[in-house]
Backbone:
């Protein structure tokens, strides 16, 4: 059972995504992902232009006139939301931490899934798989997922994306939609992504804070790596340092995008903005493009 306090927080998250969900997300989501195949629907009389390979010869023989089989896409999908809960997700220079944005995006995708009668599950990872909720349907199930992602306290600090992907691959027996949310401050995960995408529809969502791309001139600042605890004193008043930081961040962003392109894995970069509609717009645009291409 959810406490009244938790229900209030979960309901607030649901309310924050409802406008985006109802306006665009559900239809775009539905059109973006393929089902698990085609299933028989009915037979009907042949009309000129029908593929003759779809003729049902048994029914045709009985009726004395051509009939064709009609198939529809088997829509029910399974979505697995994989969320990085390593210590770097606790960084944020604005109103929300990266982890909080990931939680809201998780809620958005989970509600889109159940509105389309799909199953949705949750896997939370750091440098180990910390928590797994098997895919299921229904609003109560999604509320549980949101509660878990909002209140979960990870045991570890580091990141092992490869290990999480390999774990997910062993869990999923049927083709699924796998969404991996992280800042991707890790290496060595390329092979695991390639293996997973052979059987599943994989989407990588990178969540980035603006201060990870550019530093403001605020004088001496002690920077700390949240995963290792290593600290570094830097002078942000030095324009040369700020420019070098900006160039390196731009380089890393480009290399990450190119890496996913080489893996043939869909990639969306989310830059945290003050308004949620601006933060989520790259994800919505990605679904629109997918729907159009289908």
Residues:
């Amino acid at each position: 059972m959810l406490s009244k306090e938790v229900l209030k927080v979960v309901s607030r998250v649901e309310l924050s995504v409802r406008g985006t969900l109802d306006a665009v997300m559900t239809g775009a989501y539905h059109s973006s992902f393929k089902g698990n195949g085609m299933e028989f629907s009915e037979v009907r009389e042949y009309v000129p232009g029908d593929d003759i390979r779809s003729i049902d010869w048994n029914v045709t023989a009985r009726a004395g006139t051509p009939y064709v089989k009609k198939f529809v896409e088997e829509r029910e999908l399974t979505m697995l939301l994989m969320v990085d809960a390593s210590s770097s997700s606790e960084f944020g220079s604005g109103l929300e931490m990266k982890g909080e944005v990931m939680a809201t995006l998780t809620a958005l995708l989970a509600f889109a899934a159940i509105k389309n009668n799909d199953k949705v599950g949750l896997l939370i990872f750091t440098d180990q798989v910390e928590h797994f909720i098997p895919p299921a349907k229904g609003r109560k199930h999604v509320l549980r997922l949101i509660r878990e992602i909002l209140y979960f306290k990870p045991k570890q600090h580091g990141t092992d994306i490869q290990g999480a992907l390999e774990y997910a691959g062993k869990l999923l027996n049927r083709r699924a939609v796998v969404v991996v949310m992280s800042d991707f401050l890790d290496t060595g995960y390329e092979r695991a992504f390639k293996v997973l995408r052979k059987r599943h529809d994989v989407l990588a969502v990178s969540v980035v804070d603006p201060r990870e791309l550019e530093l403001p001139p605020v004088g001496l600042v002690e920077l700390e790596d949240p995963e290792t605890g290593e600290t570094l004193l830097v002078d942000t008043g030095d324009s040369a340092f700020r420019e070098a930081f900006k160039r390196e961040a731009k380089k890393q962003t480009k290399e990450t995008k190119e890496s996913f392109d080489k893996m043939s894995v869909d990639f969306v970069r989310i830059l945290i903005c003050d308004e949620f509609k601006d933060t989520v717009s790259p994800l919505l645009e990605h679904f629109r493009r997918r729907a159009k291409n289908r």
Remarks:
- Strands lie at 38-45, 67-73, 78-84, 119-125, 129-136, 177-182, 201-208, 220-224, 231-235, 266-271.
- The chain is about 45% helix and 25% strand.
